[in-house]
Amino acid sequence: MERLRIKTPGDFISLMGHSLGYWPKESLVCVALDGRRIGGTLRVNLPSEQVDTARYVDRIVRYIANDREATGVVFGIFTHAPWNPGDPRPYEAVMERLTGELSQQEVILRDGWLVGEDTFTNYLRMTTDPVTTYPLDGIAGSQLNAELVFRGSSIAADPGFHVPVLAQRDIHEEIIKHCGRIEAMSPSAAIVKARTLWGSLLDSTELPSDDEAAELLADFKFVSVRDRLIGDIPGLNEKLGDLLLAQTNRAPHWHRVDRATDLLLHLYSRADKTDAAPVLTSLGVIQWWEGRGSRAHECFQRALEADPDYRLAQLSDQMLDAGIVAPWAMDRNAAYQPPMNRSPRIEGLGME
After folding, report:
1. 3-class DSSP state for residue 183?
2. CA angle at residue 302 from 232 to 296, to 5 degrees?
3. Closest CA to 278 of 187, 185, 175
4. What angle do the packed helices 187-202 and 223-232 form, to 10 degrees?
5. What would the pLDDT profile of 235-291 be if each residue is shown by its tens digit?
6. pLDDT of residue 38
7. Where are this protein's TPR repeats (predicted)?
8. 32 by DSSP, 3-state: which?
């Protein structure tokens, strides 16, 4: 397996952005290490003054502890809040508690950086004199960043789910006609027909025709059909409930999940009003599977804007608020990796 080496702090900070797919803001980002190899990436909002520090740190430690091979962690505190030499280090109590809790799990806090608007500083050396800062725009020229960009990776400015608005023919009437045909069928027959169409598109590289898009948008409006179609996305022969809750022992076929995302985005571009809620919710479930809580929340919120009473979006967003992370996202052998990161192994900590 090809290896990509991390040689500088800029490489690591760049990797955090590429792993998340966007540039974090007011965030604590932790990257797990197994010896000299990279594990999973966790992003959480920076704690407010009202946050219970013990609960906040416990949540982070529980996530990292799920990677049983993790021996170390590096972190980035991304904030635009000003800091001057001589000031107390930001979030010092949180980081000290995190260091102690991780050490009890035999995980070492290896290194970390305070990443500001224009510069970054080694967090662990902020108490020394003088304090050295580095220009943040320099990471664009890091070797790892250049390699990942070459492979097709990019870092968005924010975690938003950006969907192009295209001028396309309204297919709402066709959706209604398909809904009538589905209602006239038995539930089992409707599911079989929907799975046949959905499966053929997941295995294809083509976008659905207008009629196929209308049929699928109608299919997703029926709860039993919708759940079965979502469960078909990972490509695993497992219980439906385990698939929806990411509780399988085997990893999903992530290339198939990527394909489903593309199809659902296309369907969303053809949907209108309440027709969009099931599709947006399904996209949110995928984002949750991938460990992208911010994007999942945005999808669920958009779904509720389209249909305030859409139950699956309500329940799924409540699950996010409770801090529940998809089991796949907490398993280094099952967790989602962007397509350009799936073949190379990223390792090397040459950070003198």
Report:
1. helix
2. 55
3. 175
4. 30
5. 999 999 999 999 999 999 999 999 999 999 999 989 988 899 999 999 999 999 998
6. 79
7. 277-310
8. strand
Per-residue pLDDT for 332 more than 90? no
The domains located in the chain, with CATH, are 3-159 (3.40.140.10), 172-321 (1.25.40)
Indicate the pTM of the whole model: 0.76
- What pLDDT, in 10s, does the model give residues 93-122? 999 999 999 999 999 999 999 999 999 999
Query: Which strands, in side-by-side order, build the sheet including 72-78?
Result: 3-6, 345-349, 37-45, 27-34, 72-78, 108-115, 119-122, 133-135
Cα separation, 299 vs 278, in Å, equals 10
Q: What H or E segment, with its residue span, contains residue 42?
A: strand 37-45
Which stretch of DSSP H or E encloses residue 234?
Answer: none
User: Hey, what amino acid is at 258?
Assistant: D
* Angle between helix 276-289 and helix 293-306 axes, rounded to 10 deg: 170
Residue linked to tokens 């979006």: 313
Longest dimension (CA), the chain: 76
Q: Is the pLDDT assigned to residue 352 strictly greater than 50? A: no
Q: List own/partner pairs for 131-140 with CB under 8 A and 24 or more apart.
A: 131/85, 134/9, 134/10, 136/13, 138/10, 139/10, 139/11, 139/13, 139/14, 140/14
